[in-house]
Amino acid sequence: MGGKIFRIAAEYDGEQHDLFPNYYHKSLEKYIIQKRRDNFKDKISNQNLVVLIRIKAVNGFSRNSINSFQEEIIKKFNSHPIIRRSAVKINRIPKYIYNPYLKKLEEQCSLKEFLK
Predict the structure, then answer these.
(1) How is the chain split into domains, by residue range?
(2) Which of the residue ranges 7-11, 57-61, 82-86, 111-115 would you say has the lowest mean pLDDT?
(3) In the 3-class helix/strand/coil scheme, how is the chain assigned residue by residue?
């Protein structure tokens, strides 16, 4: 984008990342360990200039709502400190829809169209 290379990672954070008690963490200690791991990933990502986009279940996103993810990814990408300093902004990304019959993502617009 604009001659710049960005390292981008995305992670879906289920409710267990933000709410206690939850199904995965049977103790507060295990929940706190999870929060520390999340904070460590954030810190390492920032140190290595990686844009880490967290899609959170507590914000209403689920693994089945991939289309909503795309809007959230754009919003989080554009608001990330690394991106804000670079003056790069995206308005849309190629859209993919999950086809449960084929068990794969299908592109809804071409990359060529995206780059126009």
Answers:
(1) 7-115
(2) 111-115
(3) CCCCCCEEEEEEECHHHCCCCCCCCCCHHHHHHHHHHHHHHHHHHHHCCEEEEEEEHHHCCCCCCHHHHHHHHHHHHHHCHHHHHHCCCCCCCCCEEEECCCCEEEECCCHHHHHC
What is the pTM for the complete model shown? 0.59
User: What residue type is assigned to position 5 of the chain?
Assistant: I
User: In b/e form, how buried is each residue of 18-57, taking b as 16+ CB within 10 angstroms?
Assistant: bebeeeebeeeeebeebeeebeeeeeebeeeebbbbbbbb
Task: Look at residue 101 and tell me whether its pLDDT is greater than 60.
Answer: yes
Question: What region does 16 belong to: left with phi over 0, alpha with psi -120 to 50, or beta?
Answer: alpha
**Are the C-beta atoms of residues 13 and 38 closer than 8 Å to each other?**
yes
Query: How far is residue 84's CA from residue 107's CA, in Å, rounded to a whole number?
Result: 28
Tokens at 6, concatenated = 């960005």
For the beta carbon of residue 98, count every other beta carbon within 10 angstroms: 14
